[in-house]
Amino acid sequence: MADKFDVIVIGGGPGGYVAAIRAAQLGLKTACIDKWLNKEGKGVFGGTCLNVGCIPSKALLDSTHKYEEAKEHFDVHGITAKDLKIDVSTMLARKDKIVNNLTMGVAGLFKANGVTPLEGFGKVLAGKKVEFTNHAGKTEILETDNIIIATGSIPVAIPPAPLTEGLIVDSSGALEFDKAPKRLGVIGAGVIGLELGTVWNRLGSEVTVLEAQDKFLSLVDQQVAKEAAKQIKKQGMSVLLGARVTGTEIKGKEVTVNYSDSEGDKSATFDKLIVAVGRRPYTENLLSGDCGVNLDERGFIFVNDQCATDAPGIYAIGDVVRGPMLAHKASEEGVMVAERICDHKAQINYDIIPSVIYTHPEIAFVGKNEDELKAAGEKYNVGMFPFAAVGRAMAANDTAGFVKIIADAETDRILGASVIGPSAGDLVQQVVIAMEFGSSAEDLGMMVFSHPTLSEAVHEAALAVNGHAIHKANRKRK
Ligand code: FAD
Ligand code: AMP
Fold it and tell me: Please, how many CA atoms are within 13 Å of residue 147, restricted to the half-sphere of its CB?
């Protein structure tokens, strides 16, 4: 490699590839290194998100949602779906095609923006040098003024359930079952466990989710979590709380999971087991001892609010640093760092990062939830509005759930929102925008929302904060 780069990005997931594109847009000579090889052994960019994360999981969730709608809910529309079948191999091939289109898309964007793609492994050396080893094993030392580390995360493995080809799998393996297992166990009732459990539950698997914590979705507003638990149970998925997995035994094509709960030691036998107990930062062989980059006590690369590491000119973003492991958080950090390298005053508001769980009903939230505010002793007002009272939700036969908006009792400034229901992820985004502009609940209530739309639930919840909702009886009226 001839000349010196302005920026070398290590990792081409949604953090790294976005950082590389923004840096190139700003006129910086940029390279992006990624070691990912797809199923055909071809180097691709897009990281976890595009290859085995956000995108393939949503492709399967959408396919199976359509199937379930046809199977369970078409009759109310007067539609008969006879001899309904789903061909799992077609479903998986569709998912693979979407993944392929998107990873090719990143390659196209690199070309259009002049980012140099480097397929292989990157290691940070002292003096802002990067050791690059391509897939053929050839190594060279690259020089650069800035390094952006975006090496992401990998699934956490737990000793009681070691991955076993075709039987005990992680989230990537759970995207590839060639048919719905009859009995499916999932360890971990986090976002990934619930989403993947949902996919296979819809295709007929008997799904049991084992969760060590006593509380369901502990990080989510507990009113939302309660509604989610009710809906998930209705869909036939069994979630065992307070169930800590202690071991697994494989006999032939079955796996028996030993776990303990408040009643003592128990076991359950499955045809497949998904381990979804979280992800950890990936820094394997990434940093030379003298490069000046430090890790924190949990193994994340230590950075400040602007994603600068302890080594000048070296930044780290995305899942490999503190904060929620979310693709959009990674991307925004990528943009921020690229812009700060060019002396722009970019900043991220870490208090307003939305999260979405793509079950049905969907769950989404931003800012503070009621449980957090209560625990902190804050004074607040809550406005809620159920989808059962939204005309568009009724028209779509999709009325479970509600929007909940919370505002400061004194200033009325919106502090957070939680949504469970149709298009929750898109609806919560409306509150994100409002919060970013420092909106009060009254401001949001004064805006004009199209009718009939699901957004009207956001409008009415904002009005309800001050007891002014129109399409439901308010608890109090000021
Ligand atoms: P990654 O996407 O993990 O990318 C890191 C890249 O760095 C990889 O391509 C890796 O090959 C490369 N790399 C690592 N080390 C090196 C090295 N030394 N040299 C060269 N290359 C290297 N998030 C959401 O926001 N929404 C969702 O719906 C969602 N769904 C998910 C579903 C699943 C099943 C999973 C597993 C994750 C999901 N996530 C979701 C999380 C999301 O995928 C991550 O937050 C996101 O991918 C993090 O981006 P990143 O750029 O930090 O790292
Ligand atoms: P998340 O970090 O959101 O992906 O969620 C992972 C979940 O797995 C957490 O809720 C953990 O409590 C749960 N978990 C971790 N280890 C175990 C275990 N040994 N048995 C059951 N659940 C576990």
Answer: 29
